[in-house]
Amino acid sequence: MARRNIIAGCVLLICSLAYGFLTIQLPDRGLPNTPGPAFFPWLIAGGLTLLSATLLVKGLRGVHGPGQAAPSPVSSRGWLALGVFAVYLLLLPTLGFVTASIPFFAVLTLLYGQQNRLLVVLTAVAVPVLLFVVFRYGFQMLLPRGVWL
């Protein structure tokens, strides 16, 4: 497992640095207090670089848990989550971000074992609304509104 982590860490680190280099050429908006076109690519490149370096360090250190077994194949729950995500992506342009995200987060929360129904409902409503507010008013980015709005 350590060898795979080292190889994956190196490949991802090279990709993230190349992606970061390509974002240098993006133009700057020049408007005060607004993120320019390069903001999110730099955020993605920085996060990917950090995670890739962490994976590489983990591989180099050879971190293993006691009695660590080989990774198991993807369970049926994982395939179901992938299917739910595909349906979510198909419905997103029609329903809009908030309307499509509420049932999506509810299904994923239930799929991953949350038993408390009140917490499922609160999370399913709070997360999309919070993300909408942050992107719409914080980053001034429009999210899909749907055909009804």
Plain-language structure description:
This protein is mainly α and 149 residues long. It has two domains: 2-61; 76-138, no CATH class. It has helices spanning 2-23, 39-61, 76-95, 97-111, 117-138. The chain is flat, with a radius of gyration of 20 Å. The protein starts with a helix and ends in an 11-residue tail after the last helix. The mean pLDDT is 81.
Overall structural domain count: 2
Number of strands: 0
Q: Looking at the structure, what is the overall shape?
A: flat
Structural classification: mainly alpha
Helix coverage percent:
55-70%
Features of this protein?
149 residues, mainly alpha, 5 helices, 0% strand, flat
In short:
The protein is an all-alpha fold and 149 residues long. The chain is built from 5 helices and no strands.
Q: What's the layout of helices and strands?
A:
Elements: H1 2-23, H2 39-61, H3 76-95, H4 97-111, H5 117-138
